[in-house]
Amino acid sequence: MQLVYQFLLSLAATIGFAVYFNAPLASIIPTGFLGGLSWSLYYVFFKLLDQKVLGAFMAAFLVGSLGELLSIVFKKPATVFITPGIVPLVPGAGMYYTMLYLVEENFEMAISKGVETFFIAASISIGIITSTIFSRGIRSFSKYD
Question: In whole angstroms, what is the distance from residue 124 CA to residue 103 CA?
Answer without folding.
Answer: 27
